[in-house]
Amino acid sequence: MAIKWVNELPLGGKKIFCRVDFNVPLDDQQRVTDDTRIRAALPTIKHILAQGARLICGSHLGRPKGKVVETLRMEPVGAKLAELLGGDHRVLVTDEPSGDGARQVVDQMREGDVVLLENLRFNPGEKKNDEAFAMEVASMAEGYVNDAFGTAHRAHASTAGVAALLPFKGGGFLIKKELEFLGLLLGEVGRPYAALLGGAKVSDKIGVLENLIPRVDLLLIGGAMANTFIKARGGDVGASRVEDDSLEAARRIIALAEKKGAELLLPSDVVAAAGLDATSGEVVAARAVPAGLMALDIGPKSRERFADKLRGAKTIFWNGPMGVFEKQPFAAGTLAVAEAVAGSDAVSVVGGGDSVSAVKKSGFADSISHISTGGGASLEFVQGKLLPGLAALEE
Ligand code: ADP
Ligand code: MG
Asked: What pLDDT, in 10s, does the model give residues 24-81?
């Protein structure tokens, strides 16, 4: 991919529009409860500022559906950014994403200031990649940088349209790092190469499975997804969550793994209970879940077997929790694999929204080589799809 990086761009003295992913969680008083995404963009932001550019940041926040939603204004995000920049820079938040008010703030900014545009999705043109909106945003700037990996799988005005309208464009350091690690998963890797997949649905992950199976040595499947595979192989999964319309796909994937010589591991035991609110579960055979019970986590034998395989791997991609990790009685499987991935000396990459929160919750995040900031975007990348936000950066 021919993408220029932010450190290769002629930024000095220019007004630079930088698409960031500041879609952070807010509490009911609009306080930022997790600033990970703002921190992730800091290297790029600081670099742009250090070059003497005038920086205009833009992001979406939540789902305002094309209109102004008072609780989704960027003000608290701007305050958090100013705090993280250590008081060295003013952060001016505009009261609309584009238009005269925004332009005035940009026109009056001084060197060292950061302008943060109001929530881009207040304008219906953002998600539609509307040309007129893209031109309004572009008209405030002289160069384009994208560091919002989390929205790179969307062709929106700020991730696609604007890039084409400015004299130069490039990717930020966060996108660069994401591509380095995610790209590695699709290239020459250290072996054994293990893919650990779980989570809610097979149907969400078929593309990932199909693209990874020819590359991996080992495929470990847990979570609700495993139920569909176990049923496809003739097991009785009781009242577990199953996708009956994906049984055929599961059989196809099993056959593909056989054909490509990837060893497929499914749980042999599971922790089952009558429902998600149960305060404990019982360990039963994965292929013989009693009527009325649901498999909600992988069992102790499976934990050990999965952990063993993972500890010996040299490359690991992990997406999808092994069980309902949000509930303490069903979190042990996810915790055990997190510990094993962290304890391995593999290059390890975790992608997916819930998987990332599970890893953070496990306390092992620091021992993982790369935790992707893009849930959907990382999965689409691993599926081998071309992400529109990256395509827009290509020279
Ligand atoms: P990611 O966001 O990392 O891609 P998914 O969205 O596919 O992951 O799956 C996460 C969800 O799957 C979690 O909310 C978890 O509770 C659920 N889950 C995992 N295992 C089971 C199971 N055995 N039964 C029901 N739900 C499960
Ligand atoms: Mg999810």
From this structure: 999 999 999 999 999 999 999 999 999 999 999 999 999 999 999 999 999 999 999 9
Catalytic residue among 62, 112, 207, 353, which? Answer: 353
Please give the number of the atom of ligand 1 that sits closest to the Cα of 296: 23
Strand partners, 58: 19
Give nearest CA residue, ligand 1 atom 10: 199
Token pair listed for 340: 């094993």
pLDDT digits (tens, 9 = 90+) for 223-259: 999 999 999 999 999 999 999 999 999 999 999 999 9
Instruction: Name the β-bridge partners of 317.
Output: 195, 349
Which helix (H) or strand (E) segment is 315 a member of?
strand 315-319
Q: Is 376 a catalytic residue?
A: yes
Q: What angle do CA 17, 23, 24 make, to 5 degrees?
A: 130
Angle between helices 202-212 and 375-382 (to 10 degrees): 40
What are the structure tokens assigned to 107, written together?
């026109």
Q: Note if 63 is an active site residue.
A: no
Q: Which ligand is nearest to the CA of 223?
A: 1
Nearest ligand to the C-alpha of residue 295? 1
Q: How far is the CA of 320 from the centre of ligand 2 (A)?
A: 8
64 Cβ inside 6 Å of ligand 1: no
Q: How far is ligand 2, taken at its centre, from the CA of residue 350, in Å?
A: 13
pTM score of the predicted model:
0.92
Q: Residue 195 Cα, ligand 1 centroid: separation in angstroms? A: 16
116/111 Cα distance (integer angstroms): 14
